[in-house]
Structure formats: structure tokens, C-alpha cells
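--- STAGE predict ---
source: upstream dedup step, 1 unique chain passed
mode: sequence only
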Amino acid sequence: GVLTMGLGHIRLGGEVVFVGFVGAALTRILARPERRVGGLHVRNRTFDAIVLLSLGVGVLIASATVNLNPGDRDRLRTPPSSVTR
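--- STAGE serialize ---
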């Protein structure tokens, strides 16, 4: 996803990163590590999934709303009136 963004496809890269976060959240919810959980044992799986989904939604929103043409300021201005003097 980050490589896709680096190649200039910002929105597609954001979607790929979002899918990755959703996959990580589902894996965290569905995986049941009984042994060798290490640092994951101190956190709740639901909390981890909520954080991962929130990050994914944030990346998706940021990539969808980024201005891809920063030099195109004319589209923000109101058109000049058609009245000539």
C-alpha cells in the first residue's frame, strides 16, 4: 500500500492499507493464541481490533480527501462575472 502511494496512486494505496488494517483486526479477533502470546496477553483483543480499524478508517479518509492537484487553485475561486464594463 505504501509503495502504491509512493508510485503516485494515493487513493488506491490508501485502500490497500485499509484492507491490510481490516485483515489485521480480523486476525487479532479470530486468532486464539493460547501459548507464547507474549506482549499481546496484556491487551484486550477487542481493544486491538478497534484501534486497528480506527487506523484503517483514518488512512482511508485521509487518502480519499487529499488534494492531488495542489497547484490547481482556480477551481476554488468563484468564476468571474459575465458583466463587462
